[in-house]
Each structure stands twice: as structure tokens, then as C-alpha cells.
Amino acid sequence: MITINDIHKTFNKGKANQVNAVNGITLTIAEGEFLVIVGSNGSGKTTLLNLVAGSVFPDAGSISIDENNVSKLPDYRRSQWIARVFQNPVSGTASDLSILDNFRLAAIRTKAKGLSVGINNKFKQEVKEKIASLGMGLENKVEQSMGTLSGGQRQALTLLMSVMDSCKVLLLDEPTAALDPRSAEVVMRTADKLIADFKLTAILITHNLKDAYNYGTRIIQMSEGLVLRDLNNKQKSDLKQNDLFDWFG
Amino acid sequence: MDFYLTTVTLGFCYAALALGIFISMKIFNIPDITTDGSYTLGGAVTAVMLTHHQSPYIILPAVIIAGGIAGALTGLIHTKLKINALLAGILVMTALYSVNLTIMGRSNIPLSNLVSLFSSIQIVTDANQNTFWILLVFVILITFLIGYLLKTDFGIAMRATGNSESMIRALGVNTDRMKITGLALANALTALSGYFFVQSQDFADINMGIGIVIVGLGSVIIAESIINWLRITSVWLSLILVLAGAVVFQLVLAVTLAIGVDPNMLKIVTAVFVLLIVSLPRLSSLRSS
């Protein structure tokens, strides 16, 4: 599904503050795989995710999604395959727009945003039903602006928004880092359910080793822009939670 | 009565400008100073084409295109060359001064006795009232068009661009192109104000745009204060408040002059008035806390 071939990314090249974020990673992520990435700060996790999303371009190497070489494709064109949930709830939703407006945009992620009014009663009903499935009681607040909701509610809605349109790859960049433990659990469970229900290929970055242990079908540990450990589903299920803590010991 | 009529008419002239500033400032979060130049550009194109006996209906699209190009230029400089939006606007505005002077050929063009938009249509016999009604029709039309646009999928994407850029890029929108389009639209509206102003006042002047951005800002800020105060989320109501803001702004200035304030002090009054509206919500919240 996603093939990453020997990619490199250096920031501020040639300057005193040069950062070699990703130093030649080769990785193949199969369809339906739920890859968890762990690693200390500055290990290149977020850069790797941004390279896959197209927010930054590699200095060398290539990335393909579904056999298409997307190395030079900007993020707004990779959105035909990729949906994202950001670390900051504010980044994944538009605060001043209503929940309904946010969902409308998500529903046409892979399509052109044309000059017709797309929000009608049928669409509204559809959104309400989807939101009701979260069980957060938000279905009657669809006209409210997104900014009135809590971070946890917004992350849960962002997840739901990602499957409003056809979606193959879901990128989760520390989606629960800004949330309290209870909301974090709801968001992670929702993510896990959606990934299973929609057979998504997913990449999750997390600092929460409990989540890294509980979720996913494969785990890699990154360090200094390289893959340090790579465990498949079988190896991951044999892993004990304490082993994970030892990785960072 | 005539006093209020001409003031409200002037407010209507500036309605398009106010909507333009609403789009650039409130929707895209870009302080767009191109306004001063594109407003005069609209006036210059109108004046020169009128003196060449062109129909106001042909001038209308020409003005919109001219303003659109000016805005698109600012957008291109801002997005493609990654130059601060404020500076990009100042650069285009500065360059436009020469462009406008070249278009006009001289610094002032009188337009009396020429067929303009307001003399070509006769709704009522009184000239002032006639101008008022024609402008009212245009203002309603423009507001309807912008309101509809903001409701479409494209419009929602536009509003999201100024609100959460990372989100809307992840949802497949080229934000650079969206900003260029938005600034083009905003400046097309601004130029349209120049088109109305020149024809209602029967002259165009190279300096007519100096400080005009504050008229738009003032209108939007008046509207915004009410929007925040009453927690309005409706797009239509917001647009109507911006229009009302444009009229109220002119009324305040007219009343200031009518009560005998020295016209030289008018710009100070304008600045203080805008400052007052901006700071009022903050001052009152300071006192309550």
C-alpha cells in the first residue's frame, strides 16, 4: 500500500542548526496494516509522517501509495488517499465553522469544491446519524461552531470526518497527546474501530507506550532518523508491555 | 433629508469595499492594503472608459477584472514568494499608483455631463434618489452573490482556509490558489466601489484611494463588534451587518462634519472612532473584571 524507499530529509541544510531528521528509511506498509511508531523526541517520527502526507518533500528517495509515485505530490493532492488526524485538535478542524460545515468539507475531501450548495437536509441527517454513533451526544449540536467543543470531542469528530469520503490511509500524529486520559481512551477506541471497520491502512505515532502495546498490528521504533526495531504482528503480540519500556531504558 | 440620503448613498458606494475587506480580513485573516490602490484603479478605469463614451455595462466587468488582477498579484506575491501579506499589499498598492496615473493620464478627471450608470437608468426623477435606488439594487445583488458563494462548497473551503490551513490542505484544497482567488475577489469588490464612487461623485482623482482601507476596516469592525456581542454565526446576518457598518461609518463622519468639526480633523475623527469601536468591548470587559 505504502512503499517508502530510502528517503532522506534534512532541515536547514548547511547551517549551524542543521537537523538530519530522516536518514534513509526503507519501509513497506501492507494494505490494512496498522503501524505504530514509537521513538523519543527528535527521532524523526513526525517528519516521516509529514513525508508520507506530503507536507514536506524528501531530499532523496521515493514514496509511493498504491503503486503511484507520490514523492513530488503536495499534501492537498495526496488527500485522495490520505486522511489525517493531527496532534493539536485545532489543526484538524476549523474552529469558526459549524460542525456541519466541517463534515461537508470532509465529505468532499477527494472531490472538487464546487459552486453548488452541498449542505441539505439529507446530508445533515446523514451527519447526525454518523455523529450519534460516537455516543457523545453531539448529534444535536451540528449547527454549533467546532470551537465550542472540547479537544477530545474534536479529535473524535476528526476521526469520523476522515471516513466521510473514501479513505485508504489514515495518519494519526499523537492524536491523544493533548487530551485527558478518559478522552484519550475514547479517541483511541474510536480510531481502532474505524480502522478495522473500514479496513484502513493506518500509521499511529504515539508516546503512550500503553497505546503502542494495545493497538496496532506492527510496531517500529525510530531513533536518529532510522528504524531501530521493526516487529510484525506475531512478534508484537509476543511482546510484553515491560519490554516496550525497556526500549527506552 | 437630503443630508442623510447622500450619506447613506455614499455608504452604499462603500458597501462593496466593506464586503471585500470582510473577505480578506475576516475570512482569510489577511490585512490587505492593496485596497487603496485597487479602489483608485476601479475609479480610474471607470473614468477613462466613461470619457471614451463606453457604456457603464461594459465598464462594470472591466473594473471587476482590473481589481481582480490587482488582488491576484498581491496573492501571488504573498503565496508564491512567501512575502508577508501586509508587505505584498503595500508593494502592489505602491505600484498601482503609477499604473493608475498612467491610465488616467492626469491626476483628476471630471465626469459631469457624461452618461454614467446613474444617469442611464431612470427610476425616480430626483437625481440623488435615483442614485440611491440604483445603488440599493446593486448592493442587494452583490450581497446575495457573496452570501450564496460563502454557502457553497467552494465558499466553505474558502472560510476554512483562513481558519485552519493544515486541515483544509489535508482535505484536498490548494490553499495558495484559494488565497489568490480570495484576494482577487476582495479587490474586484473594492474596485467596484471605486466604480460606484466615481460615477456618483462625477469625478475621479488619483488620491481618492488614500486611506480608503480604513473605511472598509471600520465597517467590518463595527459589524464584528455586533457579531461577537450577539454571537452571530449566520453568514447572511454577518454580511448585512457589514453593509450596515459601511452606512453607519459614513453617518458618523457626516454628523461629525455637520456639527461643525474642522474638516481637517476628519481623519483623526475616523481613526479615533475606529479605535473606540475596537477597544469598547475590551474596555468594558476590563471594568467588569
Strands ordered across the widest β-sheet of chain A: 6-7-8-3-9-10
The 3D shape of chain A can be described as globular
Percent of residues in helices of chain A? 25-40%
Please describe the biggest sheet of chain A, giving its number of strands, its sense, and whether it closes into a barrel.
6 strands, mixed
Largest sheet of chain B: 2 strands, antiparallel
CATH architecture of chain B: Orthogonal Bundle
Beta fraction of the residues of chain B? under 5%
Strand order of the largest sheet of chain B: 1-2
Work out the oligomeric state of the chains in this entry: heterodimer
Q: Please give the share of residues in helix of chain B.
A: over 70%
Broad CATH class of chain A: Alpha Beta
Report low-confidence residues of chain B grouped into runs of 5 or more.
Answer: none
Query: How many strands appear in the DSSP assignment of chain A?
Result: 10
Secondary-structure arrangement, i.e. CATH architecture of chain A: 3-Layer(aba) Sandwich
What's the gyration radius of chain A in Å? 18 Å
Q: Structural class of the helices, strands and pairings of chain A? A: alpha/beta
Count of DSSP H/I helices of chain A: 10
Features:
heterodimer, A: 249 residues, alpha/beta, Rossmann fold, 6-stranded mixed sheet, 4-stranded antiparallel sheet, 10 helices, 35% helix, 24% strand, globular, B: 289 residues, mainly alpha, ABC transporter involved in vitamin B12 uptake, BtuC, two-stranded antiparallel ribbon, 2% strand
